Amino acid sequence: MNRKFLIATHGAMAEGVLSAVHLITGQVENVFLIQAYLHENKPIEEELEGLCEDEWVVFTDLLGGSITNQVLRYAAEKGILDNIHIVAGFNLALLIEVLLSDTDTPLVEVVEQAVNRAKDQLVYVNKVVQ
User: Fold this and answer.
1) Which domains does the chain have, with CATH numbers?
2) pLDDT tens sequence for the chain (130 residues)
3) pTM of the model
4) Beta sheet of 84-88, edge-to-edge order
């Protein structure tokens, strides 16, 4: 089963984040974007149609946001939740870690470790340097 990635955000955040990934890591493959509500009112469900095949990690910007909810609803309705790993509230470090992960490592393990490491990177730096 192929491993693919989807960055789905409100507006152009997805493109900006992918630009940063390319700057840091070079070109990565199998990354797709949904930039919701940017130019047209195209239903997100139409853009999710390709998620029925392969194994996907979907990075969304907000837990409880419309995009996360629609991806979750779509995967549940299609009965493909076992193949769709949704990470809400991602950051750049998490994204890079998952994109560059060893494809022989189970995706559940990759995502869980990346989420735990990403939590450690949320730091109020002023409090650290005082």
Assistant:
1) 4-127 (3.40.50.510)
2) 789 999 999 999 999 999 999 999 999 999 999 999 887 777 888 888 878 888 999 999 999 999 999 999 999 999 999 999 999 999 999 999 999 999 999 999 999 999 999 999 999 999 999 9
3) 0.93
4) 31-36, 3-10, 55-60, 84-88
